[in-house]
């Protein structure tokens, strides 16, 4: 079988099946959905920042330790890290390919996972254990 040369025309033609359709669609929907949820949660984040302006650590622990504030904040952090991973994936796809892309994507995933886990566990610790 003859290997197809990838040109601009090949990529622009939807009949060539260039790329992974289901994965690309999932990525597109995930990026748009997490972006929309982030916009909705901005009100909560603004409330927390305004409420804590000029207060000390005890006030911060008291506000974030409230389940009605802390649990949505933990959900927001989880969604933001998913959105961050997808956004960085787009950038990595533009500049890297092959094994280098795989390595950087793995590092990106690990970084986002670490940020998400540390942040969510920290917030939940404040909510459930003060």
Q: Which key features would you list for this structure?
A:
mainly alpha, 3 helical TM bundles of succinate and fumarate reductases, 130 residues, 0% strand
Overall description:
It is a single chain. By secondary structure, this protein is mostly helical. It has one domain: 3 helical TM bundles of succinate and fumarate reductases. It has helices spanning 8-12, 21-52, 57-64, 67-95, 98-129. The longest helix is centred in the first third of the chain and has 32 residues, at 21-52. The mean pLDDT is 88.
Structural class: mainly alpha
CATH-defined architecture: Up-down Bundle
For the record, the CATH class is Mainly Alpha
Count of distinct strands: 0
Largest sheet: none
Q: Indicate the overall shape.
A: elongated
In short:
The chain has 130 residues and is an all-alpha fold. The chain has helices spanning 8-12, 21-52, 57-64, 67-95, 98-129.
List the helices and strands and how they pair.
Elements: H1 8-12, H2 21-52, H3 57-64, H4 67-95, H5 98-129
Helix pairs in contact: 2-4, 4-5
